User: Fold this.
Amino acid sequence: MIWPELFEDFSSFIPENERSEMIKAFYKHLTSNDQNTSPKAAGHWSTLELATLRPQVDPEYLKSANDEHLCIKLAIIEWHYHNQSL
Assistant:
């Protein structure tokens, strides 16, 4: 893995018993009716995505992950495309 610490943070949000199917687990949490769960899942997803889009992690670029509405939209769209490739 290129960024094991980023993946660790990403996967730490998902309970261990759900980690065997991370994409499905994230979808469950992204679409949760719990107003705390969905934004947190989206934040973890988006942080990993934004951190790995460039050859080196850009802390300024990662600040976009603080925008809850952007993160939820980004995570749902990306989940869709990841799921299509499975």
